[in-house]
Design goal:
mainly alpha; single chain
């Protein structure tokens, strides 16, 4: 992502049509809901659905902040932080599987 840093910063500032911010947010929510449905093999209960949406939004916001803040830290560190944040927030809800296990 750092390779296209200038583009990414500019694209995140665009509002309306072709908004990268809107695309990323929608994509993360859609992907995460589908991923959790796949893990559980059924529709999510309301608590898990809302928690999934919340964490998708938080992950997007962390990524936006990282991009707009000048890419402080490595991509791997950001990914690990996102997974740790999700694991803390969803640990009790994810009884069947642990989709956000971070290996140290």
């Amino acid at each position: 992502m750092k390779k296209y840093g200038s583009f990414m910063k500019q694209a995140l500032m665009i509002e309306g049509q072709n908004s990268l911010r809107s695309y990323i947010s929608t994509h993360c929510e859609t992907f995460d809901l589908a991923y959790h449905r796949y893990l559980y093999g059924k529709e999510l209960n309301e608590t898990l659905r809302l928690s999934t949406i919340y964490h998708a939004s938080a992950s997007s916001a962390m990524t936006f902040s990282w991009i707009l803040g000048g890419f402080q830290g490595k991509e791997e560190e950001l990914a690990k932080l996102v997974c740790q944040m999700r694991r803390l927030g969803m640990d009790a809800l994810c009884q069947k599987q642990d989709p956000y296990q971070v290996d140290d």
